[in-house]
Amino acid sequence: MDISCDQCSAAFKIPDEKIPEGRRFAVNCPKCQNKISVDPGQPAQNAGTTAKNAAEPLAEKNVIDEVAAGAYDADEKPFDFLEAGAKTALLCEPDPADRAQIKAVLENLQFHTIEAVTAKAALKQMRFHIFDVVILNEGFDAKSSAENQVLTYLTDLSMSIRRNIFVALITQHFRTMDNMAAFNHSVNLVVNHKNIADMQKILTAGLADHEASYRIFKESLVKVGIV
Predict the structure, then answer these.
(1) What is the per-residue pLDDT across 111-142, written as a single tens digit (0 to 9) for each?
(2) Intervals of CATH 3.40.50.2300 along the chain
(3) Which residues contact 107 (CB under 8 A, 6 or more apart)?
(4) Topology of 79-223 in CATH?
(5) Are 167 and 190 in contact (CB under 8 A)?
(6) Sign of CA dihedral 191, 194, 198, 200
(7) Confidence class of residue 204 from pLDDT cuts 50, 70 and 90?
(8) For residue range 157-174, what is the model confidence (pLDDT) as tens digits?
(9) Burial, 81: exposed, middle or buried (Cβ in 10 Å; 0-12, 13-18, 19+)?
(10) Are 191 and 169 spatial neighbours (Cβ–Cβ below 8 Å)?
(11) Quick check: 35 and 26 in contact, CB under 8 A?
(12) How far apart are the two ends of the chain, measured CA to CA in Å?
């Protein structure tokens, strides 16, 4: 049976032989630990969960669908252990030289960094972990930003998850820190490829602006007991 979480949109499989016959059961989402209630007798959406008969063929329209349909595999989790307060980053850059340069910047800024070389690998990492920062080249495993499935996945995330992720888009087409281009692509920061050498300064400034913008909002959520 295929299960999807209405809170974080993670998807995973439960082997049919482990499903209680004819009765409702609950399972924790492996990504956000949200409790999901499942009624095997209702194939349609139920209590925030989408369940499909495992015998039905999956229509794999794209990499996002393919990854979402995959069974839970603990080996695909990006980190075995992180200390409290640790910062994490996902780096999606196809050029090895640029990737090494950006990774060095992230490590200087104290981020635990995972490098992905394909969209499928990146999406698998994000199934089980909410990264603080995602650095994404617009042409990562795609011909353009419009076909970039990692960007599509991030754009489609629920706002409660997305606002906790700082996304920087590396592009050949827009000026660095072009706020309108960032808004149009649903990212937090745009970095022109020619400015990668200044990535540490640019990223530091972008992260500071992001933190300042959300500080009052997050403090308000804490006060009212939402987080």
Answers:
(1) 999 999 999 999 988 888 899 999 999 999 99
(2) 79-223
(3) 113
(4) Rossmann fold (3.40.50)
(5) no
(6) positive
(7) very high
(8) 988 889 889 999 999 999
(9) exposed
(10) yes
(11) yes
(12) 31
